[in-house]
Amino acid sequence: MSSIPAPRRRTVLSGLLAAAAVPAVTACSGGITSLKGGGSGGSGAADSGAGLVIGTANFTENQILGHLYAEALRGSGVKATVKPSLGSREVVVPALEGGDIDLLPEYQGNLLLHFDKKAKETEAGELQNALAAELPASLEALPYAAAEDKDVFAVTRETAEKHGLKSYADLRKTDGELVFGGPAEDKTRVVGLVGFRERYDVTFKEFKALDASGPLVKGALKKGDVDIANLFSTDADIRENDWVVLSDPLHMVPAQHVVPVVRSAVADAPVRKALARLGTALTTSELSKLNRMVDVDREDPDDVAAEWAAEHGLTEN
């Protein structure tokens, strides 16, 4: 899922949850996805009565979000199960289109770029409208949450001071000298090497395929095996390690509010209501706290989600 400093609480503005246009209720045409078994073939009943399968990507925050979705849905009387850590967007989105899963926690800007690599929208409302136009007819982006988590690219304090780095534009001073670490998908993503090259005219000495804001890339940054790392703005380790998040003056990274993406066939009133309640309660600050509880305090994502949902009244019908 631009660069912002350490996460901070965001005010939940009146009317923040922008309404997306509702596509026609059209089922996916089955087909082969990256997942095996358990799929509905995209032709399930046009309500959530049979229960929803929530898929998540393979990083901490998305797993937490998947369990939060499940807790909120169950609190509204909707059966829900979670399939965590299925893979990257390149895996989970086709699985959603194919009906192997019904619901996915996503991030506005990066999801739009997945469908339209030339998308120019950067503001949350514009992104929501663009998603409504770009998503397949069988999928719908429900109103987005108050919480936002952007991809950021960070360096150690030592590297920042050595090269005078404050923004992505400053990386031109070190063009071809630094080693870049992130998930394999960063090699071909606009929010990754492609964007650095096209937007900032910056290249790197080497690209190391690791993970996104995970133990591999963070360990490599600590040890000096990479000089710049793809992290997430809500990652508690940024502050813990005094890493420097570089600014994004040319807006390479668009807004990244958390947005539920669901198969239209199961997006009935109870589902919409449950996820809207969650989206209003979940702020950037709260999401950062949940990440810390899992990544730093080593608690389980499902336990953390269940406790938070109960505390915020989301488990009550």
Question: What would you say about this model in short?
Answer:
With 317 residues, the chain is an alpha/beta fold. The protein has helices at residues 60-75, 89-98, 108-115, 124-134, 157-163, 190-200, 215-223, 236-240, 269-281, 284-295, 301-311; strands at 52-57, 80-87, 103-107, 139-141, 151-155, 179-182, 206-209, 228-232, 244-245, 258-263.
What would you note in describing this structure?
- The chain is α/β, with parallel strands linked by helices and 317 residues long.
- It has two domains: 155 residues, D-Maltodextrin-Binding Protein, domain 2 (3-Layer(aba) Sandwich); 95 residues, Osmoprotection protein (prox), domain 2 (D-Maltodextrin-Binding Protein, domain 2, 3-Layer(aba) Sandwich).
- Helix content is 36%, strand content 15%.
- The strands form three sheets. It has a five-stranded mixed beta sheet with strand order 7-6-8-5-9.
- Strand 6, helix 6 and strand 7 form a beta-alpha-beta unit.
- Helix 3 packs parallel to helix 4.
- The longest helix is centred in the N-terminal third of the chain and has 16 residues.
- The protein is globular.
- The N terminus is likely disordered.
- One of its GO terms (cellular component) is ATP-binding cassette (ABC) transporter complex.
- InterPro entries: ABC_Gly_betaine_transp_sub-bd.
- Pfam families: OpuAC.
- GO terms for molecular function: transmembrane transporter activity.
Question: Helices, strands, pairings?
Answer:
Blueprint: E1 52-57, H1 60-75, E2 80-87, H2 89-98, E3 103-107, H3 108-115, H4 124-134, E4 139-141, E5 151-155, H5 157-163, E6 179-182, H6 190-200, E7 206-209, H7 215-223, E8 228-232, H8 236-240, E9 244-245, E10 258-263, H9 269-281, H10 284-295, H11 301-311
Parallel strand pairs: 1-2, 6-7, 6-8
Antiparallel strand pairs: 3-10, 4-10, 5-8, 5-9
Helix pairs in contact: 1-9, 1-11, 3-4
